Amino acid sequence: MTSVSIHDTGALFQIAEPTDQRRAQRRPGRGIGIDLGTTNSLVALAPHGAAPRVLRDSSGSGLVPSVVAYTTDPPLVGRAAQALQAEHPSQVLSSVKRLMGRGLADIDFAHPYHLSEETPGLLRIDVGAPVGSQADSASRRVTPTEVSAAILRELKLRAEAELGEPCDGAVITVPAYFDDAQRQATRDAGRIAGLQVYRLLAEPTAAALAYGLDRGGEGLFAVYDLGGGTFDISLLRLHKGVFQVLATGGDSALGGDDFDRALAARLLQRSGVGEPTRNQLDAARLAARAAKERLTEATATRVALPGLPELEVTRAEFEALIEPLAQRTLRACRQALKDAGLRAPELDGVVLVGGSTRVPKIRELVAETFKRPPLADIDPDEVVAWGAAIQADILSGSAREGVTLLDVVPLSLGLETMGGIVEKIIPRNATIPIAARQVFTNYAEHQTGMVIHVVQGERELARDCRSLARFDLKGIPRLPPSMARVEVTFQLDADALLTVSARELMTGVRQSVEVKPTYGLSEEEVDRLVMESLDHAGDDYARRNAAEARVELGRVVLALRTAVAEVGHLRELLPDDERAGLEAALAAADAAMADPDAAADPLNRARTALEKVSEPFARRRMERALNAGMAGKSLHDIERALADEDALQEKRAGHTPELLEPEEP
Amino acid sequence: MSADTDPFALFDLPRRHAASRDAIEQRYLELSRAAHPDNVVGDGTAARRAAVERASAVNAAYRVLRDPVLRAEALVKLGGIDLDSTDPERGAPHPTQAFLLEMIDLRERLEDGGPDGVAALRDDVEARCDAALDAAVEALDAGEVRRAAEHLVARRYFQRFLDETDSSAP
Asked: How far apart are CA A456 and CA A464, in angstroms?
């Protein structure tokens, strides 16, 4: 017999009050907001209460393609990786977000990767050996978590280049519908990337935060978020500085990529291609995506697949194709309204998030369902990163007028009971953090342990839900049947991540709980990867040092060459033997810089040698400058001035610049 | 239920069923702002854990207080009867023979009725469910905890009946 009592949270209040110096360890203004997307990722800053801004590359793009190329070691990320995708389809990974926290059995969509699952619940992707490595090089197998970590590391470096100093921590957004395994995988990726993850924030909550604060608004909002690979609907209330998620729902495997696939399949079918090759499929998908984007403005467009006759696609045809997918999102919307106990007319606004909400049919259906035109005045690609940056700024300890975000758990948490039936212990849409307590008893005196299976989902049978973890409860005292009573606490924290603790009620002794997560990396593996990433951080550091050393050496070489060109012919300044030494050192520096992979050390050595050899030359130039009455200026300015003067003299009197020299040695 | 886990005490509300929705919401926002774990991001494990537990208690109490049924059940529990327990003294009262016969009758009508019959039956049971809660609240207001518990047990039977017909509906 077990007793369920979500509202009985036990004696929890005596433990501790938050201390006054609660933000002491934080570094205000150094929190970064990351939208870790299926197709693209973004990083944004909103330091010290500033308006959020997305960090862009030199071409002005804020979107970093969520693509990682394992053709090199360390891997390439973003646009550079994307460029290699066609050539190395199994080594260049994209849309790994769909694999996060998943097992092989969950992967019901097409992909070009070599997946394996030796450890149950932990996918690995075989990415082969780096291109150009020896034939017998070991092939590498990476988890989706590590791939995401590579993307996060890239975003972190982008932010740190902007901040000019290390960031303190990050808020990473996840689809509201992500279950525990997917959230845990995301959090682990953050740790592996060397980030302190302040919070995982639901993407729709982040979007609402960006809009809500923008407008200083109060009221009820729906956020309709259709990205590349996921769909979320959330209903939120903003009231007196508290943002409360009332209900959330969605589909973690439905997005704009499915629109592309549906259209690609139609294009191939219309072209009479029965069994497309991998290349044909890829080409069709790219063409479909481009056609989809053109159909946002146009009502018809022409599509050419390589080697096949051109086709015309109308917007109506595209809309008919995606209608069933769109209807799936609307069903989730209606369910969320029901869960929140709301009717559409009660809402104050509907916010659109995600690139796929640019599709006109989607806007039309959303407007119909919520009975109002949706809001889309913040770029739907950037709005989530904005919200994440705002929350990151608050959590970094900035004196920013913050809101308290009250999120909900998207899926019910349950325990497997006799016959594989699920007993729900935390209902979906319960505000988090929340705890459930459950009392277990022994059925025999010799029983000193039991296995507890925790699942997440709405289905009746455990096998239809997601298995989260199995717990070995040990050390139950030897007591007659039903006398031992062990209370197990299932705690969901503010990120909706589960922790379990247990105590024996007769003695009050805490029981050992051995956690075996059914999905994802074990704690030890994450720790190992964090250590490896620190090694990689060493690599990053070394690369940065080398780059700095190269710049410094280049600067010294250039200054010397300039000086030699300007005054090198004056033997009083540069005697012949010294000049020979100098030329040799310059040649050595050139040689050092010719190696593009040169580390900092040889570059720095070349610079030191150059500075040593040129020191007398520099001293004499300085003295000459002082004699010329130009103290207080930089040597370079002085020489410039002197050279100009020399040139002037030369012009004026046809004299050589020897004019200023005292006497030949 | 100890004083610490009395949702009424946590929200500074009188221990009675009648409650102002506004007062509950107002207090919830105040408590949430103060207790949220985001306030202690970056602090030590103990402080963060304490914040998570505090916030959990606030959320759990809010869940009970805003729901008339859970609120009534919490009052019965504070009065010494735990509806989730089978203890003969402090556990849920056993339903009467007459009540069990009433339930059997309802189940038979469910099996016999067509779609229209099921809809009418559901309306009937919904009314009985509401009436059971009203009766429980009345008993609580009169200080009769045991009688309130009996009505709440009956309400649970009606509720399960409704849940089951809901899930089997086309």
From this structure: 9
- Residue B142 at interface with chain A, using a CB cutoff of 8 Å: no
Give the residue from A517, A458, A466 showing the smallest Cα distance to A187. A517
Substitution target in A14, A17, A20, A22 with the highest count of B β-carbons within 10 Å is A22
Number of domains in chain B: 2
> What's A102-147 look like in SS3?
CCHHHCCCCCCCEEECCCCCCCEEEEECCCCCCCCCCCEEECHHHH
A491 and B52 within 8 Å at the Cβ level: the answer is yes
Question: Mean per-residue pLDDT for A216-233?
Answer: 84
pLDDT of A468 over the 90 cut: no
Range(s) of the domain holding residue B132: 97-168
What does the pLDDT read at residue A324? 93
B59·A394 Cβ contact <8 A: no
**Which domain range does residue A531 map to?**
526-660
Q: Which residue in B36, B47, B60 is closest to A9 by CB distance? A: B60
Q: Is residue A2 part of a domain?
A: no
- Which helix (H) or strand (E) element contains residue A438? strand A434-441
Separation of alpha carbons A58 and A13, rounded Å: 52
Question: Which residues, 6+ apart, have CB-to-CB distance to A317 below 8 Å?
Answer: A266
CB contact under 8 A, B55 and A433: yes
**B78 domain-assigned:** no
Each residue's pLDDT tens digit in chain B (170 positions)?
Answer: 443 579 999 999 999 999 888 899 889 988 988 888 888 877 777 888 888 888 999 999 998 998 999 999 999 999 999 888 777 888 888 888 889 888 888 888 888 777 777 888 888 999 999 999 999 999 999 999 999 999 999 999 999 888 877 655 44
Q: What is the per-residue DSSP string for A307-330?
A: TS--EEEEHHHHHHHHHHHHHHHH
Number of structural domains (chain A) is 4
pLDDT above 80: residue A22: no
Assess whether A292 carries a catalytic annotation.
no
Once rounded to an integer, what is the mean pLDDT over residues A534-561?
72
Q: Which of A97, A156, A292, A361 is catalytic?
A: A97
Nearest chain A residue to B70, by CA: A7
Of A146, A154, A179, A225, catalytic: A225
Residue A270: inside a domain, yes or no? Answer: yes
The predicted-structure confidence for B95-113, as pLDDT tens digits, reads as follows: 888 898 888 888 888 887 7
| pLDDT exceeds 90 at position A501 | no
Q: What is the rounded average pLDDT for all residues in chain A?
A: 81
Specify whether A516 is catalytic. Answer: no
Of chain B residues 54-113, which have a CB less than 8 A from chain A? Answer: 54-57, 59-64, 70, 74, 82, 84-86
Same domain, B101 and B62: no
Report CB contact under 8 Å: A7, B29: no
* The A450-456 sheet, strands edge to edge: A422-426, A413-416, A450-456, A466-473, A513-517
Quick one: three-class SS letters along A180-204? HHHHHHHHHHHHHCCCCEEEEEEHH
Whether residue A35 lies in the annotated active site? yes
Contact B56 A434 (CB under 8 A): yes
For residue A405, list chain B residues with Cβ-Cβ distance below 8 A: 36, 38
Q: Is the pLDDT of residue A615 over 60?
A: yes
Which of B44, B66, B88 corresponds to the end of one domain? B66
| Interface-testing mutation among B1, B52, B70, with chain A (most A C-beta atoms within 10 A) | B52
Residue A13 lies in a domain: no
Contact B4 A241 (CB under 8 A): no
Domain-terminating residue out of B50, B66, B82: B66
Are residues B102 and B49 part of one domain? no
pTM score? 0.72
Q: Are residues A36 and A60 in the same domain?
A: yes
Closest to A354 in 3D by CA, of A519, A479, A245, A226: A226
Task: Kindly provide the ipTM of the predicted complex, given to two decimals.
Answer: 0.79
Pair A311, A325 in one domain = no
Cβ-nearest to B5 among A8, A22, A26:
A8
